[in-house]
Amino acid sequence: MQLTPQLKVALTGANGQLGYQLVKKLVDKVTLLALDRAALDIANNAQVEQTLLAFAPDVIINAAAYTAVDKAEQEQELAKAINETGPQNLAKVAAKLDAVLIHVSTDYVFDGQSDKPYVETDATNPQSIYGKTKLNAEQAVVKYCAKHIILRTAWVFAEHGNNFVKTMLRLAQSRPELAVVADQVGGPTYAGDIADAIISIVCQLSAENEPRFGVYHYSGAPYVSWHQFACSIFQQAADQQLVAHAPRVNAITTSQYPTPAKRPAFSKLNCSKIEQAFGVMPSNWQAALNNLTLYK
């Protein structure tokens, strides 16, 4: 596929961290239907059919998700509607249209008990409502739409939206010292890099009998703990003179910071499959922190 005005792309979750980046990168290159939650409730099958059958996209990118991991433990029905029912509806319509569906998933489908970076074929075992709904979505996409790319990612951040980087920068303005969990490790992933990865995949897919459909992992390198990630953010903030002094960051354990939802302690994703299939390299999260004024 080529990025031309003739290529029709429907994007859900257009106002989220990833959706915002995709709109920015695609709006002048393809015929784009960018849909936020107000424009399309993906859990409403009739709405999904009416909107997408009328537009008839070649590619559907599902960047919509319920991502309030802790709140999902209470708001189970809402999480299920957005994270399970929605992707199933999109998959069924994509199949009717013979469109490619690119669906974004998460490291939370794993239990975090591995001792080596997860590959795509490793057993899933989600430990939270959020993780369970995201895994159910993956299974629905595989079941209903043969032409699919499922992209599992982790620790997403960007200039637009709410995320760990913004939270740390906000706390740095008022606190000389804070505590951050040091026994959860993973790969921070810049949403702009995820958008570039998706666009690269779209450009390399051919319409018929594409052998590269399937599940892929995409996250950042190098792997770090949340504590190490916070230290990097504060060092950059100090170097860029956004704070007078980098706050002192105390390392704590997950048990010292209990949350309603259980997080995977080990979220390292092996990204060699996407590199071999599409030439997509891991997200350079350190470079994404080079201009922190954009995150304020």
TrEMBL record:
Return the cofactor note field: Binds 1 Mg(2+) ion per monomer.
Please state the pathway this protein functions in, per its UniProt record: Carbohydrate biosynthesis; dTDP-L-rhamnose biosynthesis
**Cofactor(s) needed:** Mg(2+)
Q: Which terms does the UniProt entry file under GO BP?
A: dTDP-rhamnose biosynthetic process; O antigen biosynthetic process
Spell out the molecular function terms from Gene Ontology: dTDP-4-dehydrorhamnose reductase activity
Q: Which domain of life is it from?
A: Bacteria
Pfam families from the UniProt entry: RmlD_sub_bind (PF04321)
Alphabetic keyword roster: NADP, Oxidoreductase
EC numbers, comma separated: 1.1.1.133
- The UniProt record lists the RmlD-like substrate binding domain at 8-291
Catalytic activity of the protein: dTDP-beta-L-rhamnose + NADP(+) = dTDP-4-dehydro-beta-L-rhamnose + NADPH + H(+)
What InterPro entries does UniProt report for this protein, alphabetically? dTDP_dehydrorham_reduct (IPR005913), NAD(P)-bd_dom_sf (IPR036291), RmlD-like-bd (IPR029903)
Which Gene3D superfamilies does this chain map to? NAD(P)-binding Rossmann-like Domain, UDP-galactose 4-epimerase, domain 1
Listed under GO cellular component are: cytosol
Q: What does this protein do?
A: Catalyzes the reduction of dTDP-6-deoxy-L-lyxo-4-hexulose to yield dTDP-L-rhamnose.
Q: Which NCBIfam families does this UniProt record tie to the protein?
A: rmlD
Name of the protein in question: dTDP-4-dehydrorhamnose reductase
* Protein's organism: Maribrevibacterium harenarium
Gene for this protein? Answer: rfbD
